[in-house]
C-alpha cells in the first residue's frame, strides 16, 4: 500500500514541483503586502499627528478633483485612525488609488494597482503572469490539486507506525549527514506545515475553478452567483458606470457629507468607511475579520438609507470572506499571518528538497 502511495507522491510531485514552489513563494510575499507597502511608503498611509479637524468631505473631494485634471474621485475610504490618510478610488483606470491628506486635501501619491510590485507578484501567484488568465490559471489550479494529494500522501508516508519511530518522525537529526538531514527537513517540516498548507490549497482552489467553488457552495447549502475571478473593467461595466454617473449627476458634494454623518450615526465605532456614489461599505470595530463589512445603499434623490446588507446575513459573502482570510492568514491578526508565512516558505522548499532526493536516487541507481 505504501509503495503505491509513494509512487503517486513521486509521479505528481515531478511535474508540479516548480509551479508549487512559485505559488508558495509568491504567496508568502503576499501575506504581508499591506504591511510591506506601509513600511516602504509610510507617507502614503500616514500623516503627522495634529489637533486639526479633517476637512469637510465635500470640500476635501473638491480640492482633490482640482488636482486631477483628467480624473475624479469615484469612492473614498476614511479610517477612524486620525493619523491615517484618506484613500480615493478614481473613476478612470483599473483600481487607481489616490492617497490624500485629509487635513489639507493634498494628493500625496497616485498608484495604479496594475503597475505595482504586488500586482506582478499576485499575477505570478494566480496565473503565472499569463495575460490571458486562462492557461496559467489552469496550470496553477491543477498544480494546487496535486498539492492537496501530495500533502495527504506525504502525511500517510510520514505517519509513524511504531512507537519507536515517533521521535524520528518529529525531529531533525542534527548530527546526521547532509542527505539524511535534507530528508528529515522534507519529511518533518512538511508534516508540521501540512494542515496550514492544506487550508491554503483548498481555499486557493476557489479562485481557480468555478466547478470547485460551486461544489463548496453546495456543501454549505449556498447558492453561488455567477461571476469571473480577477476580471478587470469590461465594456459593459464601463457603460453601466457611465449610466450611474449620469443618474448620479445631481449627487452633489454636500451629499457626501450627509452620507458620512448618516453612517457615523448608525455605526459610531468603525475601522473604516468607504463611500461611493450611492452606497457605503463599513467595517465595524468588532468585525470578525477584515472582510466582514456591511453595505448601506442610499437613495440618490433623498440621500436616505434604502437598504442594508449585513455581512452576518449574507451566506455567500460570509463564505467568500472566510475563504479569503483563511487563504491570506489574516483571520487571527499577526500570529496567523506569521504562521501562514512560515508554512508557505516551507511549502516552497518541499519541491526543492524532493527534487534533490530524487536526483540523488537516480545517480545512486546509475552508479
Automatic annotation (TrEMBL):
Listed name of the protein: Putative iron-regulated membrane protein
Alphabetized UniProt keyword annotations: Membrane, Transmembrane, Transmembrane helix
Coiled coil (UniProt feature): none
Record has Transmembrane as a keyword: yes
Residue ranges of the TM segments: 7-32, 138-159, 189-209, 334-358
Pfam families the record matches: PepSY_TM
Compositional bias segments (type: Basic and acidic residues): 237-248
Source organism: Macellibacteroides fermentans
Residue segments, region Disordered: 228-249
PANTHER family noted in UniProt: BLL7967 PROTEIN (PTHR34219:SF3), IRON-REGULATED INNER MEMBRANE PROTEIN-RELATED (PTHR34219)
InterPro entries referenced in this protein's UniProt entry, alphabetically: PepSY-ass_TM
Amino acid at each position: 500500500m505504501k509503495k503505491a502511495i509513494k509512487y503517486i507522491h513521486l509521479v505528481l510531485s515531478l511535474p508540479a514541483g516548480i509551479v508549487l514552489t512559485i505559488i508558495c513563494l509568491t504567496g508568502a510575499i503576499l501575506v504581508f503586502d499591506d504591511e510591506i507597502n506601509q513600511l516602504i511608503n509610510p507617507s502614503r498611509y500616514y500623516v503627522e499627528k495634529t489637533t486639526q479637524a479633517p476637512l469637510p468631505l465635500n470640500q476635501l473631494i473638491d480640492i482633490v478633483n482640482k488636482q486631477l485634471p483628467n480624473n475624479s474621485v469615484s469612492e473614498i475610504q476614511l479610517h477612524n485612525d486620525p493619523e491615517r490618510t484618506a484613500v480615493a478610488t478614481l473613476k478612470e483606470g483599473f483600481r487607481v488609488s489616490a492617497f490624500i491628506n485629509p487635513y489639507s486635501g493634498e494628493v500625496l501619491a497616485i498608484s495604479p494597482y496594475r503597475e505595482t510590485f504586488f500586482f506582478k507578484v499576485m499575477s505570478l501567484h494566480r496565473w503565472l503572469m499569463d495575460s490571458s488568465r486562462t492557461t496559467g490559471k489552469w496550470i496553477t489550479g491543477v498544480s494546487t490539486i496535486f498539492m492537496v494529494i501530495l500533502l495527504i500522501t506525504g502525511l500517510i508516508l510520514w505517519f509513524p507506525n511504531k512507537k519507536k519511530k515517533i521521535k524520528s518522525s518529529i525531529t531533525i537529526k542534527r548530527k546526521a549527514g547532509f542527505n539524511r538531514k535534507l530528508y528529515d527537513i522534507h519529511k518533518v517540516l512538511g508534516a508540521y506545515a501540512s494542515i496550514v498548507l492544506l487550508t491554503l490549497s483548498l481555499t486557493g482552489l476557489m479562485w481557480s475553478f468555478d466547478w470547485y467553488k460551486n461544489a463548496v457552495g453546495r456543501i454549505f447549502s449556498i447558492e453561488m452567483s455567477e461571476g469571473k475571478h480577477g476580471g478587470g473593467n469590461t465594456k459593459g461595466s464601463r457603460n453601466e458606470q457611465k449610466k450611474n454617473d449620469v443618474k448620479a449627476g445631481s449627487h452633489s458634494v454636500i451629499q457626501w457629507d450627509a452620507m458620512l454623518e448618516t453612517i457615523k450615526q448608525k455605526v459610531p465605532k468603525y475601522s473604516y468607511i468607504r463611500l461611493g456614489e450611492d452606497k457605503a461599505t463599513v467595517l465595524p470595530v468588532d468585525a470578525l475579520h477584515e472582510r466582514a463589512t456591511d453595505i448601506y445603499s442610499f437613495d440618490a434623490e433623498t440621500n436616505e438609507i434604502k437598504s442594508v446588507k449585513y455581512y452576518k446575513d449574507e451566506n455567500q459573502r460570509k463564505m467568500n470572506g472566510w475563504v479569503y482570510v483563511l487563504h491570506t492568514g489574516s483571520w487571527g491578526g499577526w500570529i496567523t499571518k506569521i504562521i501562514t508565512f512560515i508554512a508557505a516558505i516551507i511549502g516552497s522548499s518541499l519541491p526543492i528538497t524532493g527534487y534533490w532526493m530524487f536526483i540523488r536516487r537516480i545517480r545512486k541507481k546509475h552508479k
